Amino acid sequence: MFSDESKFSLQSDSRRTLIWRAPGTRYHQENTIETYRYGGAGWIVWGGIILGSRTDLHAQNLTMTGHIYRDVILEQHCRLFRGARGAEFLFMDDNARPHRTNIVDECLQLENITRMDWPAYSPNLNPIKHVLDIFGRRIAACQPPPTCLPELRRSLLDEWCNIPQDQIDNLMLSMPGRCKLAVKSSLSKSGILPSNQIGTLIKNKVTVTTKTKNTVFTGI
């Protein structure tokens, strides 16, 4: 399972709004809009994807903490998929501080959930990132747009369910090819792939064979 969190706000913090204006009218009221540094009120959402399925979307208006991550994300979502998939279940999350607390590690051990090693600095290969990009575009296209937090939450829950499963599956099935391209690109630029990325690729059975000078790297 690949998982991640993202924030969706009622107000955009983007500074890329473009308009046509007459010279010298930059600061006229009709040419300015109020923005919020952190996007204003909104929801933090968490979701997970696997081939053929996805978790329910979890939405909260609180900062994610280790306790919430354990009690809600792991206990109410991941544990169910672990039970259904059995010992082959492999869980990926990033290195955010709430994900790496002692209580989270203890819960993973107790529930016998195997966590995928993930380097702190890695290529943008995680398919959940691309799913969240699709998700964000769907939310931005909502008409009429949500005007309050309950409407935004409803839109988030609906649009998460409306993402076609074949789009998610295609992103996950493209992982081996994208990993090979990342390895090739890294080796061509530096002559050697960082050891933490080699370890991640090998453990997740991405098969790559590349020759550089006197070095041959084969991941199986």
Automatic annotation (TrEMBL):
Domain Tc1-like transposase DDE: 2-141
Gene3D superfamilies from the UniProt entry: Ribonuclease H-like superfamily/Ribonuclease H
Short name of any one Pfam family annotated for the protein: DDE_3
InterPro entries hit by this protein: RNaseH_sf (IPR036397), Tc1-like_DDE_dom (IPR038717)
Single GO term (MF): nucleic acid binding
Protein name (Swiss-Prot/TrEMBL): Transposable element Tcb1 transposase
Gene: TCB1_183
